[in-house]
Automatic annotation (TrEMBL):
Doublecortin domain ranges (all copies): 1-56
GO terms for cellular component: midbody
InterPro entries in UniProt: DCDC1 (IPR043188), Doublecortin_dom (IPR003533), Doublecortin_dom_sf (IPR036572)
Name under which the protein is recorded: Doublecortin domain-containing protein 1
GO function term, MF aspect, one: microtubule binding
Length: 56
């Protein structure tokens, strides 16, 4: 899964972590529900991309 993410997203560093929209880390493909939004990281912890928008 991580190799596919690295290739599909054309990352310059390897994908290391995958998170669900609620910030839960998906440790194996079975942890990802069908049609779920995922967030890929090269090692950084989850950061809600909509946090600033929600705060306003």
């Amino acid at each position: 899964l991580l190799e596919e993410c690295t290739e599909k997203l054309n990352l310059n560093m390897a994908a290391r972590r995958v998170f669900l929209a609620d910030g839960t880390e998906a440790l194996k493909p079975e942890d990802i529900p069908h049609e779920a939004d995922i967030y890929v990281s090269t090692g950084e912890p989850f950061s809600d991309p909509f946090k600033k928008v929600k705060a306003q």
